[in-house]
């Protein structure tokens, strides 16, 4: 079964003449253990779709099932719990805690949830992130790409059902972007993580197993095993 299943999602902002149909009937499944990218022009509904999946926004109609749980009927408390326990987030801004080391930032979700550290998984994450000699450095001593890899490692250290990444390479140069994307891809292929990423960048999207294209609130196309050339 898919890790996320959206059916007939409609999201209307505002009312009457000024109403905007941000999502206009989106039905899509995100496969477990896959890296999916979402592309589309500005205003096509990418953020709205991510927010509906994350339970940050409620759809006007339609349903979202995350890891077997129907979110549309959940209370706010239920949604907060879902975000804390089942989802991992990566944003354009790295949002690391400046006073903590890289390793402390990575393990923060486990500390907050008072969950014991699964040493084997943590070790696998730390190896995959490729920052062995930088783990005791503070964010200010790391490059942008290194900081974003720490943020990605933090997003998946607690084994969330799915990691949602919103323009994770939007602030990075192409070399750093590749390092971050390669890590996300490894997290899927080596650690079994499921990842959904919104991006404007065809090169970034080419790291995914599948790319969905949105336009005017609808899914208009998709590609499997894309290359940067096939996206353009
Ligand atoms: P994208 O992420 O692809 O740029 P969005 O999901 O942000 O697209 O926006 C889709 C449409 O919904 C746009 O027309 C946008 O202006 C509108 N929209 C998004 N959020 C809001 C909001 N909070 N209130 C009103 N309109 C919104
Ligand atoms: P970006 O830098 O990519 O624009 P933001 O950091 O502004 O992303 O966050 C995008 C959205 O995600 C915002 O609506 C914000 O409320 C929400 N958000 C930010 N941090 C979290 C979090 N830790 N958990 C859940 N939602 C979050």
Automatic annotation (TrEMBL):
Keyword terms, alphabetized: ATP-binding, Nucleotide-binding, Transport
Organism encoding this protein: Miniimonas arenae
GO MF assignments: ATP binding; ATP hydrolysis activity; transmembrane transporter activity
Keyword Transport annotated: yes
Segments forming domain ABC transporter: 4-232
Record-level GO cellular component terms: membrane protein complex; plasma membrane
Record protein name field: ABC transporter ATP-binding protein
